[in-house]
User: What shape does this take?
Amino acid sequence: MFKPGDVISYLQMCQEEDVNLQRGMNFHLQGNISVILMSLRAGAPYADKIEDDGKVLIYEGHDIPKKLNGPNPKTVDQPFQNPSGSLTQNGLFFKSAIDYKKNNISPELVRVYEKIRSGIWVYNGLFILVDAWHERDEFREVFKFKLELTDEVWDFKRQGKMGLDHNRLIPSQVKLEVWKRDHGKCVKCGSTNNLHYDHILPFSKGGSSLVSKNIQILCARHNLEKKDRIE
Assistant: This one.
């Protein structure tokens, strides 16, 4: 089971979710659990952003598929329904968010993965979907989804809570800076396997997620050995 900050490959991500992830929005993959893939890198196709000191993700809906001789998807309103009348992924997530707001039902649980560079992903944690709306950009209407990061760590395959973890996202620019600085290796042993973004001064003791000097890369063994110790 991944924990927030774990560095993984695309294959590992697909194995964890038991599906070949081909799209960014995936409603109800494991029972009632949804999955979204995001990117805040330069040139990313959608305008995702992090707010409220890393506790909130504003996720942009997805475009119509690109087709030969078809319109530029960036000039077409993001679809709520498919031509058949069924809901698109935008529609499914939107309906779930509105049902939560209007009917006071349990919010959608969403696992979020972030691509930080080719072949390298980070598990950002478990979120709840709390709001959705339409917004107009320069050319068309797009969907926006508000997700809040939870403190809970779930084992979805066993359907149970596993404990608490940090409740702030490490910004993408910090992840990229640390990855470059630490050469994509554990700073203790040089391992390139089972890596994790670690707070040098633990978040529980006031350490920041927002500055690279407080973040390092550790392998699973050294991360487990460190736990919440201040070095």
Remarks:
- Residues 89-103 form the longest helix (15 residues).
- The chain has two domains: 13-167, 170-231.
